[in-house]
Amino acid sequence: MSYQFLQLEQHDLVAYVWLNRPELHNAFNTTVIEELHTCFKQLAIRDDIRIVVLAGRGKSFSAGADLNWMKQAGQASAEENEADALKLAQMLEALATLKQPTIARVHGIAFGGGMGLASACDICIASTDAKFATSEVRLGLAPSTISPYVIRAIGARQASRYFLTAERITAHAAKQIGLAHEIADAEDLDKKVQEIIDALLLGGPHAQAASKQLIQMVSNQSLDNQLLPQTAHHIAQVRQGSEAKEGLTAFLSKQAPAWTSNSNNNN
């Protein structure tokens, strides 16, 4: 499928989704949101893709909302505004719930919705020149649709500061508060991303999908009598799968599991 504002590339088992509005710092509008949503939905059903990397062309990862799009939203009816916002929320959910591990490759600015995209990915690798911000309050807005993912990434206490001040967060500060997992100089950013890809390819794809489901199930739940049987049921289902049996057999025989052989053959 061809896109107006995205570029989709596949390198072996890895899909690279490039935001491609460099002249506007990859800012969102309705088309960008719809294309991202479509792209994520299509990737979710592809078994030949093990990892998804989200990145931005040009000087920035994403500046968030396109100002002209925001202006139009301000002039729309309440019903139109809610429908528009729901499309953004659904796109972020599609990214956050992809079965494949996702990596945000962040450079330049990641403001507003751009920070939301980075937070919705499983892993965030940032260039040392990257800057993040939930800048909405300075426009008289609130970071509503991105809030579940940003709060998941940095916690409610840090969100209390940055949602309210809209301060710019440096790459080093982003790592300190849990937003970025790793940072690297600009010239080493792709090398660092590749290191994470190599580590991910050592894991079983079904086990990774199950682990993502586990995080969503357990996060922010209290350790009570309801959660315990949920986690027990989860691991029991995973254990019965062919991938788990393959992994255990390979470990006991001191051999590499089949999925790593397949990964190596495709690299």
From TrEMBL:
One GO MF term attached to the UniProt entry: catalytic activity
**Pfam families reported in the protein's UniProt record:** ECH_1
InterPro entries listed in its UniProt record: ClpP/crotonase-like_dom_sf (IPR029045), Enoyl-CoA_hyd/isom_CS (IPR018376), Enoyl-CoA_hydra/iso (IPR001753), Enoyl-CoA_hydra_C (IPR014748), Enoyl-CoA_Hydratase/Isomerase (IPR051683)
Record-linked CDD domains: crotonase-like
Q: What is the superkingdom listed in this entry's lineage?
A: Bacteria
The record's comment on protein family reads: Belongs to the enoyl-CoA hydratase/isomerase family.
State the name under which the record lists this protein: Enoyl-CoA hydratase
